[in-house]
């Protein structure tokens, strides 16, 4: 009997399959190895395949699509409610097969190779930035044990630590001076790695028409624009700008009951990296807006009514909606767009 839907529980080496026919009756319940995946699905008639959006999911989605199958990825938290029994590979595959057929299920856009490579640059750069911050804090902490206090900021470490190492009047032992110099060299190497990766991201950003278009929005630079383009993929997969903002966790959580609306702080769901970039970009816009009160009346009005943190999230939410509109409608950003629309 023809298989219409297959759920795959991905793993490193052993993949669990659960397939059903058009009547929902299970016809496939088996476990296959990684090297058997391509051979099995290339001989299987075209069907709907569901997988959780986890490690290697985008790779297998592209590969199975090339065999003529329809592949859909889902967030793991949306699949979990369909697990009927205790957690195991067979139950997970059955739950995936059940969830992928739900008409109101939300799916994750499948990323192409270029998008994944750009996001890899962002992830590695983010890791180097964290390591650089940790290294700077370690140097500052070790020197504080000898009564030498360095202000916060990597620039202070690069400027003052070499002077402290060369200063013979302090009580630093020779071995400790050599150790701090080694840590300082490591910090400079991390800084160089961050700069190299950032230059690669900017190079890709300049070659991308969509990314260059997003960089025109105040509060969005090359780093944020390239990350948004690579993460969103086809913006038409989202119903509207608000769904993009909700996908990034920039909308309030709800705890409502009995017809009474109770909105809490932002949900902080989705990609923490993208949300952080948008909020930090919004903070820079707020800082500049205070210097030009007349040019940025909307954000200054929000700052006057609420605090700067709330205003930053509000602007990040607004920018997320603008990003969706620019990508979907293929428009250029215009700061006077609303004014021109009202004049018509």
UniProtKB/TrEMBL annotation:
InterPro entries: Transp_IS110-like_N, Transpos_IS110, Transposase_20. It comes from the Bacteria. Residues 6-145 form the Transposase IS110-like N-terminal domain. Residues 180-207 form a coiled coil. Keywords: Coiled coil. Residues 213-291 form the Transposase IS116/IS110/IS902 C-terminal domain. One of its GO terms (molecular function) is DNA binding. The keyword Coiled coil applies. The keyword Coiled coil applies. GO terms for biological process: DNA transposition. This is Putative transposase. It comes from Polaromonas naphthalenivorans (strain CJ2). The lineage of its organism: Bacteria, Pseudomonadati, Pseudomonadota, Betaproteobacteria, Burkholderiales.
């Amino acid at each position: 009997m023809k298989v219409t839907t297959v759920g795959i529980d991905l793993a490193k080496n052993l993949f669990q399959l659960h397939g059903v026919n058009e009547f929902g009756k299970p016809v496939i319940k088996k476990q296959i190895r990684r090297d058997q995946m391509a051979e099995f699905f290339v001989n299987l008639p075209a069907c709907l395949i569901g997988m959780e959006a986890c490690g290697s999911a985008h790779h297998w989605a592209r590969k199975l699509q090339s065999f003529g199958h329809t592949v859909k990825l889902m967030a793991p938290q949306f699949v979990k409610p369909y697990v009927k029994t205790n957690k195991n590979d067979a139950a997970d595959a059955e739950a995936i097969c059940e969830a992928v057929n739900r008409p109101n299920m939300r799916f994750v856009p499948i990323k192409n190779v270029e998008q994944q490579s750009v996001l890899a640059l962002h992830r590695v750069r983010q890791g180097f930035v964290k390591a650089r911050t940790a290294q700077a804090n370690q140097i500052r902490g070790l020197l504080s044990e000898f009564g030498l206090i360095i202000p916060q900021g990597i620039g202070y470490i690069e400027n003052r630590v070499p002077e402290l190492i060369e200063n013979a009047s302090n009580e630093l032992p020779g071995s400790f001076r050599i150790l701090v110099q080694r840590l300082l060299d490591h910090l400079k190497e991390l800084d160089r790695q961050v700069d190299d990766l950032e230059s690669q991201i900017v190079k890709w950003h300049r070659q991308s028409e969509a990314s260059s278009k997003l960089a025109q929005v105040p509060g969005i630079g090359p780093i944020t624009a390239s990350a948004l383009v690579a993460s969103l993929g086809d913006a038409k997969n989202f119903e509207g700008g608000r769904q993009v903002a909700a996908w990034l966790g920039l909308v309030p959580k709800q705890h409502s009951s009995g017809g009474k609306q109770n909105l809490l702080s932002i949900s902080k769901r989705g990609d923490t990296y993208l949300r952080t970039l948008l909020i930090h970009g919004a903070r820079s816009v707020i800082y500049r807006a205070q210097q030009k009160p007349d040019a940025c009346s909307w954000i200054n009005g929000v700052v006057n009514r609420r605090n700067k943190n709330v205003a930053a999230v509000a602007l990040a939410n607004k920018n997320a909606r603008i990003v969706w509109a620019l990508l979907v409608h293929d428009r250029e950003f215009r700061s006077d767009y609303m004014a021109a629309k009202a004049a018509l």
